[in-house]
């Protein structure tokens, strides 16, 4: 369990988020930097380096509310976030969002732009996009999932 140490709750904090999670974030980003450095220095099988043929996805199965609670923590929320690194992706952008009532906005899967007539972002749409990038038909593995093609560069 990443972030678990000495019997503590790790990432599952509901109070004092800045104090309890700063060290965890530093460890996460240090580890990601080391991974990317290794990918950039390792020969690939179909490209010069593994960094040119690898997509790294960092995601939590659970989200946290956008606002701090009364104890300067964040509580569980049905929306989460993820980060993707690698070739073939659109870069330097945020996809999705939430409205004033903290309800997730709909997204056009072809453009990845928020829209009132789009679809709810889902792990299935992301998985289908990753399969599509690997030239694998998503329909053979994820029933009814349309790929989030808007993340592809």
Content-based structural category: alpha+beta
Shape: flat
**CA-atom Rg in angstroms:** 18 Å
The number of strands is 4
The profile of the biggest β sheet is: 2 strands, antiparallel
Strand content: 5-15%
Give me the strand/helix succession.
HEEEEH
Q: Strand order, biggest sheet?
A: 1-4
Roughly what percent helix?
Answer: 10-25%
> What's the rounded overall pLDDT mean?
90
Low-confidence stretches: 1-7
Note the gap between the termini: 33 Å
Q: What does the model show?
A:
The protein is of the alpha+beta class and 153 residues long. 24% of the residues lie in helices and 8% in strands. It starts with 16 loop residues before the first helix and ends in a 20-residue tail after the last helix. Residues 1-7 have low confidence and may be disordered.
Brief synopsis:
The protein has 153 residues and is α+β, with helices and mostly antiparallel strands. Helices cover 24% and strands 8% of the residues.
Q: Layout of helices and strands, plus pairs?
A:
Layout: H1 17-41, E1 56-59, E2 63-64, E3 76-77, E4 82-85, H2 123-133
Antiparallel strand pairs: 1-4, 2-3
């Amino acid at each position: 369990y990443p972030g678990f140490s000495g019997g503590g709750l790790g990432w599952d904090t509901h109070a004092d988020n800045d104090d309890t999670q700063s060290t965890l974030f530093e460890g996460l980003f240090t580890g990601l930097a080391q991974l990317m450095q290794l990918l950039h220095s390792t020969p690939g099988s179909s490209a010069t380096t593994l960094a040119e043929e690898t997509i790294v996805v960092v995601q939590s199965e659970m989200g946290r509310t956008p606002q701090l609670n009364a104890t300067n923590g964040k509580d569980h929320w049905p929306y989460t976030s993820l980060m993707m690194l690698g070739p073939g992706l659109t870069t330097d952008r945020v996809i999705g969002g939430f409205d004033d009532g903290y309800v997730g906005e709909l997204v056009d899967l072809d453009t990845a732009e928020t829209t009132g007539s789009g679809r709810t972002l889902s792990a299935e749409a992301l998985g289908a996009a990753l399969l599509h990038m690997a030239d694998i038909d998503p329909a053979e593995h994820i029933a009814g999932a349309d790929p989030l093609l808007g993340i592809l560069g």
